[in-house]
């Protein structure tokens, strides 16, 4: 039984859930990132190993979302993301495991090795992939896709929002906060003063913030945005936290009413860069430092930027004497073998560009250095 259900047993009967991951994810020492010993402790919560088929932060959300799809009698799901979306790939992998067909509607993004790898891995799942040049085109494509099923006598797919972020999906990270508390109680780490976590559509950071608030823990959450304010804003965080709180309290009124203004959630946009998926010098420097100091594999879109913020704050003295936890949200399970022997020509033609044009120079240089 997951820690959230163990604490509030009535939730187990009220909420859809299917076990997909392996928990608790480990706590790793990361003191090598702070050779000067400026903070009191520095560790990593390694959600990269959250699932055997594919790890990262999406597994926790999909345990609720795919269970809901099954409970409602759906046979296929439809989701969204950038061309190399980790969320879309994780959805395709775990949907297939549960016997659900998957449709991924993907929007153009800057090229990278990670984009290529995720596309080839998604192709192996049998997911139906569609590429769009703009948000307007993606919205139109979604409407068309939703209309096609009824016209052919099929049910409308179960819609999973970008990043799996919804009141239901973010409960995966409410539970993650309870998991962390149990690790603290077992002595695996001291209660952190601050947690650094990458923020795309806000599900992970808001879920974590809500879970910490329910538990009454004073840990701050520093969420490092890798998307613009359409997807990551305090207004959006407030709405998500309120909806998730209402969902939980509808099942168990003893759960505390948590308000965002009472929580220690900080939203940082200073390491975002020019656009989603565009790598930054600070982010790739952090990727190299993390690899050298801890052996941890980060990447440039999400976790590298998050680690860059942490390293900046270490250098500025902001974290002097504090206990710091970096929450790694990047898959560490399937990436190394992704797409082996797969021909990209089996993808829809619009995806060819990611294999026939160069990756970003910052990524290529970092990859060559770490190889």
Summarize the structure in words.
The longest helix is centred in the middle third of the chain and has 18 residues, at about 235-250. The radius of gyration is 20 Å and the shape is globular. The chain has helices at about 5, 10-15, 60-70, 85-95, 115-125, 135-150, 170-185, 205-215, 235-250, 280-295, 305-315, 355, 360-370, and strands spanning about 25-30, 40-45, 75-80, 100-105, 130, 160, 195-200, 220-225, 265-270, 325-330. Helices cover about 40% and strands about 15% of the residues. It has two domains: about 5-55 and about 170-330, Rossmann fold, CATH 3.40.50; about 60-165 and about 335-360, 3-Layer(aba) Sandwich (Rossmann fold), CATH 3.40.50. The protein is α/β, with parallel strands linked by helices. A six-stranded mixed β-sheet has the order 1-2-10-7-8-9. It has a four-stranded parallel β-sheet with strand order 5-4-3-6. Helix 3 (about 60-70) crosses helix 7, helix 4 (about 85-95) packs parallel to helix 5 (about 115-125) and helix 10 packs parallel to helix 13 (about 360-370).
DSSP helix fraction: 40-55%
Spatial strand order of the main sheet? 1-2-10-7-8-9
Overall number of strands: 10
CATH class bucket of the largest domain: Alpha Beta
Q: Kindly report how far apart the N and C termini lie.
A: 41 Å
Structural class: alpha/beta
CA radius of gyration is: 20 Å
What is the count of DSSP helices, taking H or I runs of 4+ residues?
Answer: 13
Main β sheet profile: 6 strands, mixed
Order of helices and strands: HHEEHEHEHEHEHEHEHEHHEHH
Number of domains in the coordinates?
Answer: 2
The CATH architecture category of the largest domain equals 3-Layer(aba) Sandwich
Content of β-strand? 5-15%
Shape call: globular
CATH topology of the largest domain: Rossmann fold
Mean pLDDT, all residues: 93
- Low-pLDDT ranges: none
């Amino acid at each position: 039984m997951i820690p959230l259900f163990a604490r509030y047993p009535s939730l187990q009967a009220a909420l859809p859930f299917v076990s997909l991951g392996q928990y608790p994810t480990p706590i790793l020492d990361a003191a090598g990132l702070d050779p000067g010993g400026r903070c009191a402790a520095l560790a990593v919560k390694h959600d990269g190993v959250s699932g055997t088929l594919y790890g990262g932060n999406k597994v926790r959300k999909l345990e609720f979302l795919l269970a809901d799809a099954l409970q409602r009698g759906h046979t296929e799901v439809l989701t969204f993301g950038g061309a190399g979306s980790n969320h879309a790939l994780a959805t395709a992998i775990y949907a297939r495991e549960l016997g659900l067909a998957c449709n991924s509607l993907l929007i153009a993004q800057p090229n990278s090795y990670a984009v290529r790898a995720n596309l080839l891995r998604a192709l192996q799942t049998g997911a139906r992939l569609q590429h769009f040049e703009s948000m307007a085109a993606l919205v139109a494509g979604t409407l068309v896709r939703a209309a096609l099923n009824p016209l052919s006598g099929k049910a409308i797919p179960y819609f999973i929002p970008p990043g799996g972020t919804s009141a239901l999906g973010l409960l995966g990270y409410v539970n993650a906060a309870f998991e962390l508390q149990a690790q603290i109680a077992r002595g695996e780490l001291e209660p952190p003063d601050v947690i650094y976590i990458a923020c795309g559509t806000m599900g992970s950071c808001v879920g974590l913030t809500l879970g910490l608030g329910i538990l009454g823990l004073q840990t701050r959450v520093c969420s490092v945005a890798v998307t613009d304010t359409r997807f990551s804003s305090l207004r959006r965080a407030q709405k998500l936290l309120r909806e998730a709180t209402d969902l939980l309290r509808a099942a168990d009124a003893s759960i505390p009413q948590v308000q965002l203004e009472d929580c220690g959630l900080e939203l940082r946009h200073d390491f975002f860069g020019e656009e989603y998926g565009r790598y930054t010098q600070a982010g790739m420097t952090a990727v190299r430092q993390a690899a050298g100091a801890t052996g941890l594999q980060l990447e440039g879109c999400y976790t590298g930027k998050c680690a860059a913020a942490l390293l900046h704050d270490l250098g500025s003295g902001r974290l002097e004497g504090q206990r710091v936890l970096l929450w790694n949200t990047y898959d560490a399970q399937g990436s190394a073998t992704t797409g082996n022997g797969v021909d990209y020509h089996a993808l829809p033609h619009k995806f060819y560009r990611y294999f026939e044009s160069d990756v970003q120079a910052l990524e290529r240089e970092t990859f060559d250095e770490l190889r």
